[in-house]
TrEMBL record:
GO terms for molecular function: oxidoreductase activity. The keyword Secreted does not apply. It catalyses: a primary alcohol + NADP(+) = an aldehyde + NADPH + H(+). It comes from Streptomyces ochraceiscleroticus. Its EC number is 1.1.1.2. This is alcohol dehydrogenase (NADP(+)). Pfam families: ADH_N, ADH_zinc_N. Belongs to the zinc-containing alcohol dehydrogenase family.
Length: 349
């Protein structure tokens, strides 16, 4: 198979600073499209994987699964996209297409070959996948999403991971009028959860360590904002919520948060800490409460999310940076010093 080389930023080894390099991209297949990447979001999971926090990675590693750009070329049998279309790529670039989950539009849960992650994975061609911290990417047309005109490409990029990660559980567990939703953490995921839950018609409360971002949370659509460092929060909000979305990648006292749910309420875990979470069985037996997880969304639901965001005028709150600032951005993400998503201007790569 022939390749073309493109510029990218890669971590040459675990925990190493990212540096400018070149990587191979496959030539267009009949059903592939080439995307000129305009913007790539920096997700906390990029840092976890560069640090080998979720297991042994494939290096050199080019992170980035929040990709927004424009179609630069199409394969001979492509029907979904045309040159010039605004498109995005999220957390996966392939799957078996044949298992029950794939046929149901749940490609993220592919039970055949498993989904192929946008980076830090081996594609079905046997080659490593490289992500969006690069100038171009070649993907199957089936795994590229249409970005509606109502969203700017820079604000759309984080929707391809952060947006769908919170949209899916909010939709599945019925966030809407008459429902009380709590969002734990106001970061890259949490700020989109607040925006989307509010747009769905739910009453939204942010649960954060401190009140430092309270003004932001209320502007984004929350009607209440509480500090979890204050024990009174857990007393005053006991039994209040129908749904809690936990977006943080840190170990929390799960039992304390479960106490905030109404009977038959659900706590959905979307943040992915590197250590195990523990809970008392009585925290779920009492009130018949549930703890659930949610993993991004399939291709149809991701398109649904993008269309929903365009209809409601939603995009991520972003800080656009040149590629040379990626390593500094990583440090700032780890220090919670971003409001609320760094986005790389790919023209600077």
């Amino acid at each position: 198979m022939t390749h073309t080389s493109v510029a990218a930023y890669a971590a040459p080894a675990p925990k190493a600073p990212l540096e400018r390099t070149t990587i191979p991209r496959r030539e267009l297949g009949a059903h592939d499209i080439e995307i000129e990447i305009k913007y790539a979001g920096i997700c906390h999971s990029d840092i976890h994987q560069v640090d080998n926090g979720w297991g042994e990675g494939i290096f050199p590693m080019v992170p980035g699964h929040e990709i927004a750009g424009v179609v630069a070329a199409v394969g001979s049998e492509v029907t979904r996209h045309q040159v010039g279309d605004r498109v995005g790529v999220g957390c996966m670039v392939d799957s078996c297409r044949e298992c029950d989950n794939c046929k149901a539009g749940l490609e993220q849960h592919c039970t055949g070959t498993g989904n192929v992650q946008t980076y830090n994975a081996i594609g079905r061609d046997g080659e490593p996948t490289y992500g969006g911290y690069s100038t171009h990417v070649v993907v199957s047309e089936d795994f590229a999403l249409r970005i509606p005109e109502g969203i700017s490409l820079d604000a759309a990029a984080p929707l391809l991971c952060a947006g769908i990660t919170v949209y899916s559980p909010l939709s599945r567990w019925g966030a809407g009028p008459g429902k009380k939703v709590a969002v734990v953490g106001l970061g890259g995921l949490g700020h989109m959860a607040v925006k989307i839950a509010h747009a769905m018609g739910a009453e939204v409360t942010v649960l954060s360590q401190s009140l430092r971002k309270k003004e932001d949370g209320l502007k984004l659509g929350a009607s209440d904002y509480r500090a979890t460092s204050d024990p009174a929060t857990f007393e005053e909000l006991a039994g209040r919520f129908d749904l809690i979305i936990n977006t943080v990648s840190a170990n929390l006292d799960v039992d304390a948060y479960l106490s905030l749910l109404r009977a038959h309420g659900t706590l959905v875990q979307v943040g992915a800490p590197e250590d195990r979470l523990g809970l008392s069985p009585f925290s779920v037996i009492g009130g018949s409460r549930a703890v659930a997880g949610s993993m991004i969304g399939g291709i149809p639901e991701t398109q649904e999310m993008l269309d929903f965001c365009a209809t409601h005028g939603l995009g991520a709150e972003i800080e656009v940076i040149p590629a040379e600032q990626i390593n500094d951005a990583y440090r700032r993400v780890q220090a919670s010093d971003v409001r609320y998503r760094f986005v790389i201007d790919a023209s600077t790569i």
